[in-house]
Design brief:
6-stranded mixed beta sheet, 267 residues, 12 helices, alpha/beta, globular, 13% strand
Length: 267
C-alpha cells in the first residue's frame, strides 16, 4: 500500500477535524467563507489549499496548528520545479524590485486575474490551473508577514490596459493594486507610460531580490520557464537595467492616479 502524499494527509486531517467538531461541509462553509465544493476538493486532495483557507479552518476547528504545520510541508506547486529555489528567496527577501511588461506581478494578482492568465491558451487542465492559482495566492503572504520586504514595482502601462478577463476582472484587479498600496507603505508601484516608446524594459520582465543573507540575486521570467541569475556581473547588469526602467516611470503619485483613472474606465 502506497503512503499518502502530503496533500492527501492534509485532506484526511481536515476531514477528521471537521467531523470531530460536528460540522458538515455545508455547516463549515459559511464559517470559513469557502464553498462546500471547495472544502470537499481539499479533503479529497483534488485541490491544494490556500494559506488563507488553512488559517480560517484552524480558527474554526481548533486544531492547535496541525493543519498549518502540514500545509507548510506541501511546499510550492510540484509542477514548477524550476521555481522552487526562487520561491524560497522571494519568501524571505528583505527587498524586491520587480518589472513587468505585460501582466500584473504575481504577488499583486487577484484570484480571478490569475485564473484567467493560467486558463489562457488551454495549456493546463482544471486541476493544474487551480493548483497554480493557489500557489500564486499563497506567495502573497510575503507582503503581510511580520516585517514584509520593501517591494518596488514598475509596470508598463500596457499592464493596466490589457483586457485580461474583461472589464470586471480588470476593474477589480486595478482597485486591488490601489488597496495594497494604501494598506502597505512598503509597496510602491510606478507605471511607464506607453508614450515612452522604446526603452530597455521592452526586452522582458525580471525581478531582483535582496535576500536576508548573501548577495543580490535576480530572476528572469521567460516564456514557460524561469531563470535564476546569480553571477555577480549579470546581477549588476540587471540592477542597471532596473535603474534605467525606473527612470522612465511616472512618479509614485502620478502612477497611483493613472491606475485609479484606468480602473474607473474599466467599471
Amino acid at each position: 500500500m502506497s503512503r499518502p502524499t502530503t496533500l492527501e494527509l492534509f485532506g484526511s486531517e481536515l476531514r477528521r477535524a471537521r467531523t470531530a467538531a460536528g460540522f458538515s461541509l455545508e455547516g463549515l462553509s459559511p464559517l470559513v467563507q469557502y464553498s462546500p465544493s471547495t472544502i470537499a476538493k481539499v479533503e479529497t486532495a483534488a485541490r491544494r489549499p490556500r494559506l488563507d483557507f488553512v488559517r480560517r479552518c484552524e480558527k474554526v476547528l481548533h486544531t492547535d496548528g496541525l493543519l498549518l504545520r502540514i500545509h507548510a510541508t506541501i511546499g510550492p506547486d510540484a509542477g514548477l520545479p524550476w521555481y522552487r529555489e526562487w520561491f524560497a528567496i522571494e519568501s524571505t527577501a528583505l527587498a524586491l524590485r520587480w518589472f513587468e511588461l505585460s501582466i500584473v506581478p504575481g504577488l499583486l494578482q487577484t484570484e480571478e486575474y490569475a485564473r484567467t492568465l493560467l486558463r489562457a491558451g488551454g495549456l493546463l487542465d482544471k486541476t493544474q490551473i487551480e493548483e497554480q492559482v493557489t500557489t500564486r495566492l499563497d506567495r502573497q503572504a510575503v507582503l503581510t508577514r511580520d516585517q514584509p520586504p520593501h517591494f518596488a514595482v514598475v509596470i508598463d502601462e500596457r499592464v493596466i490596459r490589457q483586457p485580461v478577463g474583461g472589464p470586471r476582472v480588470m476593474a477589480e484587479q486595478l482597485r486591488h493594486l490601489l488597496a495594497v498600496c494604501d494598506a502597505q507603505p512598503r509597496v510602491r508601484i510606478q507605471v511607464v507610460p506607453i508614450a515612452t516608446g522604446a526603452y530597455a524594459g521592452l526586452n522582458g520582465p525580471f525581478v531582483i531580490a535582496i535576500p536576508a543573507e548573501g548577495d543580490e540575486v535576480a530572476f528572469r521570467d521567460n516564456q514557460g520557464k524561469g531563470e535564476l541569475v546569480e553571477e555577480p556581473g549579470e546581477v549588476a547588469a540587471m540592477r542597471q537595467l532596473w535603474e534605467s526602467v525606473k527612470g522612465e516611470a511616472l512618479s509614485y503619485q502620478q502612477s497611483i492616479e493613472l491606475i485609479g483613472e484606468v480602473a474607473e474606465s474599466w467599471s
